[in-house]
Amino acid sequence: MAAKDSPLKQFEIDPISNIELGGYNISFTNSSFAMLITVLVITLFLTLTVNTRSIIPSRMQLISELMYNFIAQLLSDTVGDNGKRYFPFVFSLFMFVLIGNMVGMVPYQFTFTSHIIVTFALAAVVFIGVTILGFINHGIKFFTFFYIPGVPFYMHPLLIPIEVISYLSRPISLSVRLFANMLAGHTLLKVFAGFVVSMPFFTGVFPLAFIVALTGLEILIAFLQAYVFAILTCLYINDAYHLH
Amino acid sequence: MNYKNKNLEELGKKIDDLDNQNKEPSIKNKESGAGFGFKISTEIIAALVVGVGIGLIVDNYFNTKPIGLIIFFIFGALAGFLNVYRVMRRIEKQR
Description:
Chain A is mainly alpha-helical. Helices cover 66% and strands 4% of the residues of chain A. By secondary structure, chain B is mainly α.
């Protein structure tokens, strides 16, 4: 199969303008372009829709307010009163992932969340931030997070490494989940799109119908994964406040 | 129903009435079996990746070729089960 027909072609990074700084390649790529569009869409949508500030909201204003309420509710449910100050962070993260996934659903548009380095960077920010937060709140006592009370003392040499590994695996499971879902979904769409043209006569209609259904499912997954990313961030923030 | 009312109090009343009508929680966590399996498997794989990574680093550092990898692989697998247990407990709590 020619490389240009590969279902994985869509994930290739193409530099739009080559920039090199101090030996590092910091080119502005199609991935950066997708991120730029995402940020622009979020900023424009949120500012324009809430601009009128009417008490009886229009439909568009209602969408913005629903998203705001959704994350505010999530934070107050999982973290409690302490959660309010993390609202800007969690909301930005949620919107970036959600709109990033949605921008990726537009045909010919690049999906930056299908690259593990992007999702891992987001997860690493959450992980490092939450760890620092734990140390700020509890100081050196934060290490008791890995110590399970009520266990015989001779079990601790076994349990503490397990707890530490479990803690360190958080950013990996967080990033892999988002990345693999987007990668698998978009590859599947392209594979079935290939069937449409390669099947004889009118039978290509069936994969086409399947693609339509699959696109709906992909939009659901795009939302679900953004939600999972946000709720896990909330749970980790909660862990930094309440050990055990 | 007619919603062309500009009176805010009446509108508030209407909203309250509608809220009372559908008391059921609107967001239900409906997840497919594949999604659930995927969630569980990423938890195990992530813990194994961390365990194997630590094992390889330890081996490289202390020159104890297979022992560190073996020990931390087992720790990683156990941590994976712990992760799965935590996820299950969280799901049970939501019900």
